[in-house]
Amino acid sequence: MAGKLVRFMFLTGSLVAVTCWDSAEAGPGHTGPHRAGDKDVLEQMREMHRGHEHKHDFEAIDEMSPQSSLRLLKFMREIGLALPPMDSHRGHQLFMKRGCVVCHSVNGVGGDIAPSLNASDMPSPMNAFEFAARMWKGAPAMVVMQQEEFGKVVELSGQDLADLIAFVHDEKMQKTVKASDVPKKWRKRINN
């Protein structure tokens, strides 16, 4: 997987973000690289926060077995206390398949009806909540455009949204986007 993946965990009363990088580059105040597997989430969090002035209490998690901590993470995702893992590759596929590319462009590929979603223009570090808030603000116009362009509103699950947000913030993945990636059914709707 290319780019950064973000995981959130709810620990000792606070939401904690874990940003996983696939290169030597790391986020502000964090050391990299980090692995992206669920089994490594706790170790990633510890590693990332070792040099911070603020401290996190990992003692409660230390007492759990690896299986119990994985079950806890799965449960937190199911009830909305933890975001699903973000995958920019799946986000790229969704961007094309669901028709986001008809209105939005990345890497010069796509429509110009709506703002481009180039990762280079996105705030860094990534803030998934801010991006979702911007989508929410534009939702009424997007609903109208989707009904006009597709005859229906595009439905996205929480996982879909997480993956799209990862793609929109992954400059390395976006540099691989080509006009030939656009599904044939959408090509006639854009000028690439």
What does this structure look like?
The structure is a single chain. This protein is mainly alpha-helical and 192 residues long. It folds into 2 domains: 4-79, no CATH class; 88-187, Orthogonal Bundle (Cytochrome Bc1 Complex, Chain D, domain 2). The chain is 43% helix and 10% strand. It is built from 9 helices and 4 strands, in the order ββαααααββαααα. It has a two-stranded antiparallel sheet. It is elongated, with a radius of gyration of 18 Å. Residues 1-36 have low confidence and may be disordered.
Notable characteristics:
about 190 residues, two-stranded antiparallel ribbon, about 10% strand, 9 helices, mainly alpha, Cytochrome Bc1 Complex, Chain D, domain 2, disordered N terminus, two-stranded antiparallel sheet, 2 domains, single chain, elongated
CATH topology of the largest domain, which one?
Cytochrome Bc1 Complex, Chain D, domain 2
How many angstroms separate the termini? 27 Å
Q: Uncertain regions: pLDDT < 50 for 5+ in a row?
A: 1-36
Q: Main β-sheet, in a few words?
A: 2 strands, antiparallel
Order of helices and strands: EEHHHHHEEHHHH
Number of helices: 9
Taking strands numbered 1, 2, ... along the chain, how are they ordered across the largest sheet?
A: 1-2
Strand element count = 4
The share of residues in helices is 40-55%
Broad shape: elongated
| Radius of gyration over C-alpha positions, nearest whole angstrom | 18 Å
Count of the separate structural domains: 2
CATH top level assignment of the largest domain: Mainly Alpha
The percent range for strand residues is 5-15%
Which structural class matches the secondary elements?
mainly alpha
CATH architecture of the largest domain: Orthogonal Bundle
What's the pLDDT, averaged over the residues?
Answer: 77
